[in-house]
Amino acid sequence: MIPVNQVICFIVWFITGISLDKVLACSVYMVDRVTDDKLTASSIYGSSYTANKARLSSNGWSPDASKSNPWIQVDFGEPVTIMAVVTMGLADTALVEFVKKYMVKYSNTASTWSPVLHGTTNEFIANSDQTTAVTNVLPSPVVARYLRLYPTACNAYCSLRFDVIGCEVPSTTTSATSTPVQTTTTPVQPIITTTDAPSTTTTSPASPTETSISTPLVLTVTNSTQSGLCPCACTQTNFSTTQQELQERIDDIVQKLTVPIRTTSKYVRSKTSAHDSRPGAVYVGSIGIVILCVFSGFIVLPDLFTVLRYFYSTMESKCNVNIFKKCKSFKNYV
Questions:
Q1: 41 and 66 Cβ atoms separated by less than 8 Å
Q2: Alpha carbon distance 54, 235 (integer Å)
Q3: 7-21, 114-128, 191-205: least confidently modelled range
Q4: What CA–CA distance (Å, rounded) separates 81 from 229?
Q5: Are residues 85 and 143 in the same domain?
Q6: Is residue 268 part of a domain?
Q7: What is the span of the domain harbouring residue 50?
Q8: How far apart are CA 19 and CA 329, in angstroms?
Q9: CA angle (122 as vertex; 121, 124 as ends), nearest 5
Q10: Most buried among 12, 105, 139, 326, using CB within 10 Å?
């Protein structure tokens, strides 16, 4: 069975058109990588339900029921790319507690928070039981250091376990391209190529050669510390997509993939008979017609002969001596 996080990545790749290898690279469960002190909450129910127990592999976090607007927060230590959120209910099967809906907010300062826009209420549909892991893909990837979940609808208490699917934001990368150049005993000149990197420059030193063919190293320096999933030398792309635009794109894909049944080759073949002009096919058809005619003759001719004999005997019985000559002439005619 394909893991859930890979299925999510395939969906994001299909809808947004992101390169497949970049999507698969951004499918890491991030909460398992942080220390316990990076998990904090607005409140806790008790020592058995602290924020650091909110991991999927642990028991679960429960807020103080007397406090309103509960939330749980994870600090990744640095900005990361966030693709999706996974939630489960409390691990204690004796207590049927889970979150039905929640909102997601993110920040880079822990003082100013931005909501993840989703539908009209920004709420994500979460769990319907406490044992099933439910994954919600964000409408567009988010780059942030802090992430908070705000439960808005719960079963019994707002207890949950969660994780975040994403990856680290790629740092400045340097790509090297080897380009053969035809020369005749000439030194290789230094080549410097920069792309939107004001403080980063890479040079290849000049080194004279005495060969007929030399291969200079062309270095391209690109700054790819940008939002989204593009740890490569590519242009900035806005992956922000509203729910309506996403639905329109899905409908368009479905329409393009739908084929009317009347245009299928199976349907056309069932309604038409193709002409076969091969000589062998013509000969076989002609022989078949001759055989059918012969068999038909053997069936029809005896009946026809019997009918003629019946008419002959009938006319003969009606003839008398006075009109014998006429009957005789009729017999001769028959």
A1: no
A2: 38
A3: 191-205
A4: 7
A5: yes
A6: no
A7: 4-168
A8: 102
A9: 110
A10: 12
